[in-house]
Amino acid sequence: MTVEIRVPASSANLGPGFDCLGLALPFFLTVHASPSEKWKITNQTEHLPVGLQPQDHLLVRTALWTAEKYGQSLPPCDVELSSEIPLARGLGSSAAAIVGGIQLANEMANLKLSCEEIVHLASELEGHPDNVAAAVYGEVVVAIDLGSRTEVMKLHAADFYWLVAIPNNELKTSVARGVLPDTYQRDTAVKSSAVANMLVAALSIGDAEKVGFYMEQDNFHEPYRFSLIEHAEAFRRDVKRLGAFGTSISGAGPTLLSLVPAEFPIEQLSSLYPHLSLSIVTTWGAGLETKQIAK
Ligand code: HSE
């Protein structure tokens, strides 16, 4: 049996929804796998780790961990990978590898895991459910890990247009989490919680102006992370001047995500920010997809 597993990119937080909100984007990690004598990984594109032994690869480690957790053995596989999700840019590349690995074990060891179980396992590995829930379910998700289960609620947001601005440098999540404070003052926490609630309400009624406004009101992490992304302040101002509703850091960065109108003049930004890879996409609605392509 050969399976094809396709996992979308994801953008976590949307500003104030720190470690809780996520949205799926139409850039994909695609995994083709079939049982083999021994593990083999072939990279068919860029945006994939190089020089790793198969068993050191996050996707394979996750697949083996998942099968073992369910007391099953996973046959070695010949795995071909293609990716459109750049590494360490805040677009959920590790979440995609984790979800892809769990689904590989699910298919090859016949675990019969539900989406709820996949998200819960992935959240355990990632430490927070925002990216993994969006990667599994698609659209915009609100997610919380409750210990014994991970609860996910999905919001329809497929009509939104997102400007994705990807720099060519990496920013490790551990570095971007390392600049955050350990505690917050009560007034900061109360205001940040209120702002996150308003953002979810705006998403649920599809009000792009309000979503954009609240995306920029975070106090949990963006004030500390903005200085890690050299162009962030100027970019936020420039896209606003050109008609964007709002901009936040995508996940831990350094990619920036702006909510924009469909007719946003992206070409005017390209000349201002030649070092950024810019694209406008809509929310990806489908989430994780799997098909058997041969017996
Ligand atoms: N919510 C996470 C963060 C996403 O902002 O650190 C990156 O893993």
UniProtKB/TrEMBL annotation:
Entry annotated with the keyword Nucleus = no
Q: What is its EC number?
A: 2.7.1.39
Keyword Nuclease in record: no
Could you tell me which pathway this protein works in? Amino-acid biosynthesis; L-threonine biosynthesis; L-threonine from L-aspartate: step 4/5
In terms of superkingdom, the source organism counts as Bacteria
- UniProt keyword list: Amino-acid biosynthesis, ATP-binding, Cytoplasm, Kinase, Nucleotide-binding, Threonine biosynthesis, Transferase
The listed locations are: Cytoplasm
Q: Where is the GHMP kinase N-terminal domain?
A: 58-138
Give me the residues that bind ATP, please: 86-96
Pinpoint the GHMP kinase C-terminal domain residues: 201-261
Give the matching InterPro entries: GHMP_kinase_C_dom, GHMP_kinase_C_sf, GHMP_kinase_N_dom, GHMP_knse_ATP-bd_CS, Homoserine_kinase, Ribosomal_Su5_D2-typ_SF, Ribsml_uS5_D2-typ_fold_subgr
Chemical reaction(s) catalysed: L-homoserine + ATP = O-phospho-L-homoserine + ADP + H(+)
Please list every transmembrane segment annotated in the UniProt record, as residue ranges.
none
A GO MF term: homoserine kinase activity
Summary of the function given for this chain in its UniProt record: Catalyzes the ATP-dependent phosphorylation of L-homoserine to L-homoserine phosphate.
State the family named in the UniProt similarity comment for this chain. Belongs to the GHMP kinase family. Homoserine kinase subfamily.
Q: What name does the UniProt record give this protein?
A: Homoserine kinase
Q: Which organism is it from?
A: Chryseomicrobium palamuruense
